[in-house]
Structures are given as structure tokens and as C-alpha cells.
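Kindly go through the following sequence and its C-alpha cells. Advise at your convenience whether the C-alpha cells fit the sequence:

___
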Amino acid sequence: MELFSLHQKTAIVTGALGLIGKKHCEALATAGADVVVADIDGERAQKFAKQLGSNHLGIGLDVTSKASITQALDETLNKYDTIDVLVNNAAINDMFENPALAKEQSAFENYPLEAFQKSLDVNVTGVFLCSQVFGSKMAEQGGGSIINIASTYGMVGPDQSIYRDECRTQTFYKSAAYPVTKGAVINFTRFLAAYWGNKGVRVNTLSPGGVENGQNEFFIHNYSAKTLLGRMAKSSDYQGALIFLASEASAYMTGANLVVDGGWTAI
């Protein structure tokens, strides 16, 4: 079990206050890491870090701003000696405030360029910038693990039928933004793994499936029917995979995409 230990390691998680971001932080802390809880809401990040324990740090971080990321690096190094794990978790996944307009707004023919650009800025450029700033420090140290959080939709196209209700009415469409950006993340992982392999920096992707989180019953049923395990994920279902990628248990693994999706992409 020592292979999975993260004692005396520092791990930073972006988008740390999200649905699975908190679970990432909890898993890293349980494995012994000093966790940097990084989120756009710095005050809430500080509160959550205190809940994890006194040795953890909460900071405000805008992943689209290199100045913000550089400041986060400085804050981290002021408290800890190294940065050993980076979890690029921050991302935008389309939400439509008015259900009555969701179908029209999400249709590809109508999807706003501004929304597409915002997803690119956070989901792709944010991963690029965080990797550039924090990963460069890892390369300078001579080692580290970068984990980029992608999605099953980075590998396969969205099945729009799962967004139809019991009356077979399309409630909304999964937009192009999420699949496009998550596909980019997977290939960016390969680039970084090849680029920094000789510096001892391992870079892998974790591709999760959908997490049950109070969605409509028809959606949960439709989604679950497409998985081999017959259910959506729990928010804690990715903790073991994350610790594996962060720790020495995966010491000979880089440039890979670890898929944890209940069998969604297996058939």
C-alpha cells in the first residue's frame, strides 16, 4: 500500500469546489497529501481547505488568467516546498437556466459562439496555462504527476437520445463545446507526456462518466441503460483512479487515458 501513499507530497486541484472536485481533494488528503484547494471562489476554497485539515491551503484561482495562476504558484510555494501533483479539473459543462428555452438554445444551429469560446477558454486554455505554470515547476524539480480530467465525451459523440423525456420529447441537446474541449484535453495530455517525459513529469488523463446528481429520472434511466454496470457514477467513484494516477502506483504510466465510465464506451 506504500505505492499509493502521497505523504510529503503537495497536490493542487483546480475547480476544487465542483461536484467531483471536492472528492478529488478528499481522496488526496486521505492518501496523505497536502492539498491546495484552488477555485474561482477563494473564500469558499479556504473554508473547504480548513474542513480537510489544518495543513491544507485554499486559494482563489482563475484558470484563464496566467497572472492568477502564477500568483497561486507563489502562494503554494510559500507554504510548501514542492508541487508534486496537479489535477486539472476546472471545466465548464453547459447549464441552461430556463428549461423552456434549453432545447432551442442548445441546438447546434443556434448555439452561441460566446458560449463555445468560453468553454474553450476554461476547458482547454485553462488546462494549457495551469500545466505550463505548475508543470514547469515540476520539470524543474525533476518529477511530478499531472492528471487532466476529460470525459467519455472526449472519446465518443454525445447520444442525443438520452436527453429525451418519457414522451420522447427532446429536452435539450448536448452541445459541441464539451466534446470538442474534452477531446482536446486528451490529446494535449499526449503532447505533454511526450514533451516532459525526460524530465520525470508523468501526464495522464482521467476520463469519467456521468455522475448522478439530482437529474430528472428519465435522464438517469436513459443514461444508466447505456452503461454495462447499469447505473450512473457516484461522485466518489473516481477517487481510487485519481490516487492511482497521482501516486507511485502508476510510476510507469504516462500519456494514457484511464477510462472510468461503468462500461459506457466499451460497446
Summary: The chain has eight helices and seven strands. The CA atoms of residues 186 and 205 lie 6 Å apart. Residues 2-260 form a domain with the Rossmann fold fold (CATH 3.40.50.720).
